[in-house]
Structures are given as C-alpha cells and as structure tokens.
Amino acid sequence: VIIEGRAVVIRGDDIDTDVMYPGAYLNIDDPEQMKPYLFEGFDPTLRDQLGDDAIIVTGTNFGVGSSREHVVQAMKAWGVRCVVGKSFARIFRRNCVNLGLPILECPEAAEAARPLSAIRIDTESGVVEVDGRAFHASPIDPFVLELQASGGLVPWAQSKLTA
Amino acid sequence: MGRTLAEKILLVHSDAEDPRPGDVIMVRCDVVMANDVSGPVAFRSMEKMGAAKVFDPAKVVMVADHFMPAKDARSAELQKRLKEWSDEQGVTYYGQGRGGIEHTLLCEEGWIVPGSVIAGGDSHTCTYGALGAFGTGLGSTDIAACLAFGEFWQAVPSTIAVEFRGTKGPFVTGKDLILAVIGEIGVGGGTNAVLEFTGEGAEALSIDERLAVSNMAVEAGAESGLFPADEKVERYLEGRTDRPWTAERSDPDAELARRVEIDLDTLPPLIALPHLPGNVVPVEEVRGKKIDQVYIGNCANGTMTDLRQTAEILAGRHVHHDCRAIIVPATQSIYREAMQAGLLDVFVEAGAIVSTPTCGACFGGHMGVLGPGERALTTTNRNFKGRMGSSQAEVHLANAYVAAAAAVAGEIVDPAEVVEQVPA
Fold this sequence. Notes:
The structure holds two protein chains of two kinds. Chain A is α/β, with parallel strands linked by helices. Helices cover 31% and strands 20% of the residues of chain A. Chain A contains seven helices and seven strands; from the N terminus they run E-H-H-E-H-E-H-E-H-E-E-E-H-H. Chain A is globular, with a radius of gyration of 15 Å. The two termini of chain A are 25 Å apart. Chain B is built from 15 helices and 18 strands. In chain B, strands 4-3-2-5-6 form a five-stranded parallel sheet, with helices on one face. In chain B, helix 2 packs across helix 5, helix 6 runs parallel beside helix 8 (207-215) and helix 11 packs across helix 13 (343-350). Chain B starts with a helix and ends with a helix. At the A-B interface, helix 3, helix 4, helix 6 and helix 7 of A face helix 2, helix 3 and helix 5 of B.
C-alpha cells in the first residue's frame, strides 16, 4: 500500500499518552467526541494541522504510559493516515496496529521530517520518502503487517467469525 | 537452550511450536479484565466485530474503578453500560461498594494464580507479575478480541533479569526498588521485554511490596514484571482461590537480554521528579521542596502495608497547615481492615481525608485533582505532565513513608527526621 501525506511533527522523546489525551476526557467512548481533546495536554494547536492527509511524525518511545486507545481512536477520527517515528511504546504501537493505522519505525525519516514535509510510504517495502529522500523503516513481523494492512482486529475478527 | 519464566508461561498458552523472542504468537487468556474506561470502548469494537458473546463468561471480569463513584453524568453512563453489559454476558462485575481498584482487587479475590495469563484493559495489568502471572496491559480493541476469542497476538518478549542484592534499610520499600530499576534502565529500557525480579532482596519482599514493584514494570516500558512464585505466594493464595496452578522458574541457561543489579544495602528512599517516572533521585537531594498535596493510594501502593506505613508516620502528628493529604485504600476489604485496625481514625485525626477506593485523582479523573502551580507527592505510578489535573502542576512519586512525612512537614523530608520528632 502507498500512503502519501504531509508531516505533522510531534517533537521530543518519551511523549506519553496522558499529554496526548488527558485522563479527564477518558469518560468519552465515542471516537468522534474524542477529537477535540487529542494533543490537549501537549500542544492543542497541533490539531489545526490535522486533516485526512496528516502523517504523524514522532521521536523515541512515543506513546509511553497508559493503554488508553482514545489516542489512536482520536487520530483515526481526525483522518490521520500513518504514524512514523524513531520508536514506540508497546501498547501505543499495538493500538495503532489493532485499529489499522499503519505505524512504522524509521528513525532517519523521523529525523528528516519537518512540519508539512511531503511523505510517501510504501508499507510493503518499508521505504519512507521525506521530501524526496528515501529511508528504510525497521522490518515488521508478517502477521502484524498483514493485520494492520487489512484494517486491524475488527476485520480480522469478522473474517474469523464468518469463516 | 533453556526457557525464561515468561516464555514458559506463554508456551503453555499457545499452539506455537518453538517460538523465540520476537516471534509473534497467539496467546490464550485465563482472565480478561476491563474497567469503566476501557470496557465501553471495547464493547463498541466487539460489536463492530459482530461478536455477540464472550468466549467464556467465567474468565471475564469487569471493574468500575476509574471514575467510580461517578464523577458526572457521562461517567455514570459508562458505569451503567459496564454493569448492563456484564449482566447480559453473565460475567463477574465489581461495582461501586463491592470492589475497588482493579489490580489489587483481582489479586485479593483469587483471580490471579502463578503461571496464568491475564489480558487487562489497563496498562498496570503487569501488577499480576507479583504472583508469578503474565499480566499484560492491552488497548480496548485488543480486549474486544480477547473477549470474543480468548486470545491476543503477542511478540515473545525477551527477559531482563533484575537482581535485588542485600537487605533494604529503614523507610525503604518495594516502591524504592522499582524506582531504582526505572532510574537505571529508563522509561523505555524494558521495551519488548519482561522484567524478572530475583535475588535475596526479591525473596524477602512481602506480597504487597511485590505488587508495588511489578505494578511499575510498564513504567520501564516492559510487558510485565514477574516474580517467580514461592511459598509466600502459596500462603497468600490459601483460601482465596481454587484455581489450579504450578510455580515455574527460568532455566539457569535461559537466554537473557540483560542483567541489572540493585544493591539494597546502600539504597536510600527515592523519589521520581516531574515529569517522568525515570527521573529518579534520592529523597535527600530534593529535601525542602514545598508540597501542596500528598496522595497515598492507587493500584501500586494502596495496600494494608502502605496504610500501616502511613499510620506509623501520621500517628499523633498532623498534616501541615499548607498541605492536604488524601489516603485511598485500594479495595473495600482493605478499607475495612484499616478501619478495624484503627488506621482510618489515625488518618482523620491527623487531618487527612480518607477516600473510597477509586483510581480517582491518580489519573487526573476526579476526587482530588491538582490546580495550576500545585505540587504533589504521591505513591502513584505516573508523574507525566498534567497526569493529576492541571498541566501546570507537578507530581513526585515516592513510597508511603516519604509521602506521609511530606504531609506532616509540608515539604519533602527524610521520614527518619519526622519520626525522630516526638509527636505533640
């Protein structure tokens, strides 16, 4: 799959899910209603950069902390196409995979990206192009690649139930 | 090549032939747990999956603890849905007045036995490692699949062996041991790994202190934090559970990703400074810092052990004029035990408030959140920016002695100093 979009850059390392989606708003379970609180504890103005061509670029150990899926649900609801970062915390990465939001570890691309950089990703080959410069993302386990490419656990479960 | 404890547990719960660290396998769950925050989001995903029923109602448990008692109409609605769903599915539901904070509660209620696998819709599910179980935190859609099929995908983790050597000194608790580990390996140091705690210092810990240690394994990025089960676990489980279990250990020749040694003989009380659990320094280094609120409780440190330590400091003393103190027994049963032991009286007499068991202010939900510019010292597990309310507030993490001493002094202080002063 080819994904194209522009970079929304989240600066810094060890950015936690509490600042991405503060606890006070966890009493919301409808993804549409989660949208106004994404990035609320970090930099609410980042929301102005979102749209259906947004590719989120992160530093090291992004998404550390809580298992709250609200972060990824809200990203999906905003139309975010992909997440590219230097590295990710375990549950955040799982949540992206499970919700079918492609997530790639590519430190060089994350370093090269600037706000609004044009990004092109080939999820099969793992090549990430940032403003025309190509980088290689860390390889993804075939099961995980298939899972996120097919839309995550919901379609996976649907096919299991109808099989 | 031998197997680690984590590998052995996962192998028993999988059909995979000979998986090695990094391989993705499907893992069967013995218990699937969610709460009033993760549950309703999971139910939505489960509905989208087209799964009408849970895989096994006897293996599913729901706990209302985050916004319990309901903070507002929206929270009340989530708890209502959690209960109705649980009743419909025929699964166990611990609601208001009948349970408490999920992780302490599930141990107490005998859901967790050594060698079992627990998928929890909460990152601190790693707490169950204290009883030798592979508890791991998952997001809501992961939980939805677990509810429907009783399994989740998991990359086999590597193991970081943490050896606690020597004997810990006064006013040093399990909290300091895990803070030392996180300070050493960092908040991402345990990624793709489990921590396994060994050594004489690990064996000497009570179950309550082991719970505090395992609870914060996720703060190092680890999937779980395991203590091999021993006779202390066996005694703890007596009368709590009839689930069968066997104690496993890592083979001596099992491959480890890393070894970490923590010397308890020289370990002082520690504190994690804002805004990362890995910003760990000795309490001594930050003495004199003013504290506006002390919070003793949460899934890491709301046990009877923590409450007794708190009472040791607060008995006959008063919470400082410029400080507030909130004490949160983790479960109804701990609350009652503390009441019968006279501890609640000590707390109230000292000018602290005692809260019903709840996740409450720990995650910035309700019941004691912080305002701008305020500084808290807590026994909780996270001090991220804005974690307990205002993004202009600060949270410091430490053990119950240190927290209670700060409540008395109104500032960060060595608990020994407070104890030396004879109560008024």
